[in-house]
Amino acid sequence: MSIPPDAPILTGAAMREAEAACAIQGTSLSELMDHAGAAVADTAWRMAAGAPILILCGPGNNGGDGYVAAQMLAERGANARVAALAEPATKLATAARARWNGPVETLDEQTKPAPLIVDALFGVGLSRPLADGLAATLRRFAASRILAVDVPSGADGDGAKDWVPPLPADVTLALGALKPAHVLLPTAAACGRVLLAPIGISANRAMRSLPAIRPAKPRPDAHKFSRGMVLVFAGPMPGAAELTAAAALRAGAGYVVLDGSERAPFAAIIVEGEDKFGERLDDPRVGAVVIGPGFPAGDELLFDVEAVLDSGKPLVLDAAAIAAALPRLSETPCKAILTPHEGEFARTFPQLYGSKIDRAKAAAVRTQAVVVYKGADTIIAAPDGRVAAAWPGSPWLATAGTGDVLAGACGAMLARGGDPFDAAVAAVGWHIARGQAIGPGLVADDLVRA
Fold it and tell me: Is 119 part of any known ligand binding site?
């Protein structure tokens, strides 16, 4: 599975707006369909490598893309067949079908498979789950290679509904921009390798996939404090905070202080007692504070979170510290990154609905903080509407303590100064890269070792 890095992501509504803007600027919807069909034909030609191709066409414009692709493939000499679910229901699809010179079979349980199936049935236009009969028909093609046009049929393109496509794709060709379904579970797992085909639209880039991971090098004149000083506060379970402090140092912080622990994970980390916490909060060199790892909810955590908020320092809030800070976050003028996993998010923001992207964006607006909504499909959202989607991550990160490591990486990136959203994006990228590099057998301690 793969996703193009730093690629725009558009919902169905945003895609329609982008297409309408193209029409105003002089590029007709028919031209966009020609571009889309050509991209589908090129991809199918490479995937088929001379083998027969069956194009499944639906009644809408996704089906129109399929008809255009079928005619282009036939003109190249490909052995291409078309099977239609229904008559075209749009002017564009009707015109595209009229250009197809070959026969049109009826898509049903008698349709003969081909080595390559092009799924151009619905795309992002689906408003309800597939009927059981159609789903059963599509499953008959599971032994073939599958190229999905925009999204596999049966998926909710906006990722708000957990519909699992009955025919997972080997390759999904996203037209013009990625869609939320490409980066959100459960649909993302059914998209296979995702390719992006530019078709002539100008896509808003406020929402995008994770950029390519490029470690930031220190400036030639860097010193330990210019690289960022991170203060990590340990709770009653100091092992988690020790992982956080070690991760902050490994992720690039120049100086790390671990407050409230008796043990330093690295000799270069300064360990101090709890009595020094207030003094350290007054230290102007502290660029970020991390609190929450290994710290259960209670009055002690609430007191310490209040102190951090009062200091105005940039902060990373993890685990129970997120809920502890919630009443004041939106009113506190500080840079903040929140790192909830699914359970913590649900407990802290129980009345948010929609896709994971929708909920992350709403939580960011509510808290006026950057939200890193963790999971296999991690979503990073800023209060100004920017979103980065980190799919696929590394499945080896699904083990205890890796969230504490991510909190430390966020602290390191935030301590450098600059935009908290960019810091969170860099931290998530670092975290995934470490997980992918280590692979099988990974435990959280491995992420902070050389």
Answer: yes
What share of residues in the chain are helix, strand, coil (percent, to 5)? 40, 20, 45
249 assigned binding-site residue: no
Is 205 annotated among the ligand-binding residues? no
386, HSE (Cβ side, Cα atoms, 13 Å): 15
63 is in an annotated binding site: yes
DSSP 175: E
Amino acid letter for position 443: V
Domain with CATH 3.40.50.10260 in the chain: 12-209
Please check if 123 is assigned to a binding site: yes
Q: Is 125 marked within a binding site?
A: yes
pLDDT in tens, 358-368: 999 999 999 99
CB 241 within 8 A of CB 230: no
CATH code of 229-447, in short, is: 3.40.1190.20
**Do the annotations mark residue 238 as ligand-binding?**
no
pLDDT digits (tens, 9 = 90+) for 139-161: 999 999 999 999 999 999 999 99
The reply to whether 5 sits in an annotated binding site is: no
Answer yes or no: is 150 a known binding residue.
yes
CATH number of this structure's domain 12-209: 3.40.50.10260
Q: Check residue 1 and give its pLDDT.
A: 66
The ranges of the chain annotated as CATH 3.40.1190.20 are 229-447
**Model confidence over 414-424: pLDDT tens digits?**
999 989 999 99
Distance (Å) of CA 94 to CA 74, 79, 98, 190: 19, 23, 6, 29
Determine whether the annotation assigns residue 65 to a binding site. Answer: yes
Q: Alpha carbon 38 to chain centroid distance?
A: 28
Q: How confident is the model at residue 24 (pLDDT cuts 50, 70, 90)?
A: confident
* 116 annotated as belonging to a binding site for a ligand: no
Q: Is 56 annotated to bind ligand?
A: no
